[in-house]
């Protein structure tokens, strides 16, 4: 069943893949950050962003599962 919450979860999990697979968007040297070329610090930034997005997706999934159990009276689905 597709719900808005599940779409948000999917987008949270898909965004890091799209960002990292679209190499042309970050395959450059400038702007450098504290002497680190853009190519490297952009990827490191996505490590942190991916962690945050995964945590958000997990929390939304847990809330969705609790709500489904409540709606169905605790029956497993």
Class by helix and strand content? mainly alpha
Strand content is under 5%
Shape: elongated
Question: Which stretches are low in confidence, meaning pLDDT under 50 for 5 or more residues running?
Answer: none
Number of continuous helical runs: 2
The secondary-structure element order is HH
Radius of gyration: 18 Å
The total beta strand count reads 0
Structure, explained:
The chain is mostly helical. It has helices at 4-21, 38-72. It contains 2 helices and no strands. It is elongated, with a radius of gyration of 18 Å. The protein has one domain (8-61). The chain crosses the membrane at residues 7-27, 39-61. This is Membrane protein. Keywords: Membrane, Transmembrane, Transmembrane helix. Pfam families: DUF3311 (PF11755).
Briefly characterize the structure.
The chain has 77 residues and is mainly α.
Secondary structure: elements and pairs:
Layout: H1 4-21, H2 38-72
Helix pairs in contact: 1-2
Key descriptive features of the protein:
77 residues, mainly alpha, Membrane protein
């Amino acid at each position: 069943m597709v719900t808005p919450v599940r779409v948000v979860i999917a987008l949270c999990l898909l965004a890091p893949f799209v960002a990292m697979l679209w190499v042309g968007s970050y395959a450059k040297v400038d702007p450098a950050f504290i002497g680190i070329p853009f190519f490297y610090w952009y990827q490191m930034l996505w490590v942190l962003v991916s962690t945050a997005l995964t945590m958000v997706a997990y929390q939304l999934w847990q809330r969705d599962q609790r709500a489904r159990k409540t709606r169905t009276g605790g029956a497993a689905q």
